Amino acid sequence: MVGLGNVDNISDVNKPVSTATQTALDLKANLASPTFTGTPTLPIGTVAVTQTAGDDSTKIATTAFVSNAVSAATTGSFVDLSTNQTIAGTKTFSSDIFVKLIRIGNGKFNTGSNLAIGEKALINTTGGGNNTAIGLRSSEIMTSAVNNTSVGYAALAKLDTANANTAIGVQALLNSNGDNNTAVGNNAGDAITTGTNNTFLGENADAGSATLTNATAIGYQSSVTTSNTIQLGNTNVTDVKTSGTLTAGTVTYPKTHGTSGQVLSTTGSGTLSWTTPSTTATAYSGVLPIANGGTGASTQNFVDLTTNQTIAGNKTFSAASIGIQLNTNSSGSKIMKIGFANNGGSNNNSFQSLAFGIDALKSLSYGDNEIAIGYQALYNDQRGTNNIAIGNNSMYNVSSNGITWAQNNLAVGSSAGYNLTIGKHNVLLGNQSAYSLTEGNYNTIIGPDYSGNGITTGSNNTIIGRALSLSPEITNNIILANGSATIGAQFDGTNWKMTGQLETTGFKTATGTSSQYLMADGSVSAGAAAVREVADEFTATAAQTSFTLTQTPFVNSKVKMYINGIRISKTAYSVSGSTLTYVPENNGSYTLTAGDRIQMDFYY
Q1: Is residue 543 in some structural domain?
Q2: How many C-beta neighbours within 10 Å does residue 456 have?
Q3: Residue 573 is part of which domain span?
Q4: Is residue 170 part of a domain?
Q5: Burial (Cβ within 10 Å: 0-12, 13-18, ≥19) of residue 464
Q6: Parallel, antiparallel, or unpaired: how do β-strands 444-446 and 462-464 relate?
Q7: How far apart are CA 103 and CA 71, in angstroms?
Q8: Looking at per-residue confidence, does 388 or 516 come out higher?
Q9: How far is CA 585 from the centre of its chain?
C-alpha cells in the first residue's frame, strides 16, 4: 500500500497513483456484489466446502457442490417434464387434472366420492355423490344425483337428478332421467326417459315406451313394450332353451319330456310330473271330472257330435257369424240347414238381422232388422229394413236404387215377391205370389201359384185367391178369385164388378134418397118412420129440477113424467131438446128429495 503520510492534501480524484498500484487495484473485486472472472479459489476450510443442497443463503458454492446438487436432482428427486421417468411415492393434487383434454378427478363440483374420467364427464355437477363417470360426455349434465355409474361415450348423458342407475356402453341410457335403471350394451335403454326400475341387456336392447316401469329386455335388439314384462330375445329368436326346470307362479314344470300316452299331473304341492294313467277311459265308472275329459255329471250334459241327442236349455254362440249346416247336400226328407253365409256382404253396418238357410241374406251390408228363412231368401238384399222373407228365394232381388230401398215387407212362400226391389209395406203370401212385383207399395196378395202376377209398380191392391195376368200398374183394387184364376169380384176403386148371380139378404140400391127405405121387393119407399120407445129412469137429488134425456124426443112424441111411480101433470115439466125441466109449483109445490125415483117415457 502507498504510505498515507506522503499523500498530498488535495482532492481524492486528483490524488496521484502509480501505474503498478493501479494495475493491482484493477485485479481486485468489489466488496458489494463482486463480479468474478475465471475460476475463483477459496481458502481451504472455508464454509462453502460444506454447502448443502437447498440452502438458500448467499454463501459461495464450489463447482463440486453444484455438480453434486444437479446430479441428485436428475436421479429421481424431481419430475422430468421432457424425458421418460418413473415417479415413486404419493402425489396429491388438490383439483382435477387434464391429460390431453381428458379430465381425471372428482368432476366439476369436486365431490370426493365422485370419479370422473373423460372430457365433459361430470362437468355440470353441483352436488350429489358416489357417482362414477368414465368416457367422453359420460353423465354430462348430471347436477345433484347420487349412486350412478356410467361407462362409455354419452352414457347417462342426459341424466340430471335421478339416482342409482348403471349404464355401460356407448349412449347406454342416453335419455334416461329415471331411477334404478340398468343398461349394458351400446344404445341399450336409450328410449327410456322417465321410466324406472328397468333392465336392458344387449346392444340396442330397448323399450317400446319411454315411461315403462319394471320392464326387462334381454338380447340383441330385444324390445319390451309393457311395464312389468320380460322380453327374452328379438323377433328372430325361434327357440328358448334352459337346462333347468321352469317355474311359473307356484307351478314347476318338468325339464324332460314324457313317453307316449303319459300326461302331466300335479303332486298337489306345485310340482308337475309325467305320469301314465292307470286305466283307459272306458274302464272308468262314476262321475268323471271335466278336468279329466268327463262331463262332471252322472248323466250326459254336453252336446254329442256323433249320435242323436235331445238338447235342453239355451246355447249361446259367441262368434261374430254363426253357422250350422249339413256337411253334404244329402238327399232325403226333413233336412234343415241353418247358417249365415258370410262370404258376400260385409255385415259391418247391419244390426239385429237373422238368417236361417244357405246364402240367406248373403249380400247384406247395411240393412237392419232383416229376417230371412230359407235357401237364398233375401239373397241380394244389401240395405233393406224390417223385411221378413220366409221360403226359398223369397224376395230374392230386394235391393236399393241409391235413394230408397225395400222396407217393411212380408213374403211367405217359395219365391214369393221374387222380383221385388224397392217396394214397401207389401204382404205377400203363397207360392210365387206377386212374383212380378218390383216397386209397388201397400199390396196385400194372398194366393198360390203366381197370384197377383203381372203387377209391377201397382200399389194399394188387395188380392185374395189366384188372380193372374193383371195390369202392371193396377192400383186401389180389391180382387177375389178362385184357384182356377177366375175373378169372382173386383173393386176398381169406384165400382164393384161381380161375376155370376149375387145372392144376399139385402143390399143398398143405387137409387132412392136418404129419407127413403129399401122394401122387400127391391123398391124404395118413404114409408112410415120407425118408432123407438124410451123409458129413462133417474134417482133424484135434493131439489133437482133439470134432467138430461138419453134421446131427443120425436116432434110428435108425448113425454110422460113419473115421480115414485105416480104420473104428474104435463104442466109440471117442460121439454127442450133432450133437457126436461121440472116445475114444482105446478105439482103441488112438491120439491124433489134425494132418492126420489124419476121416470120419463117417450119415443124418438
Answers
A1: yes
A2: 18
A3: 533-603
A4: yes
A5: middle
A6: parallel
A7: 35
A8: 388
A9: 90
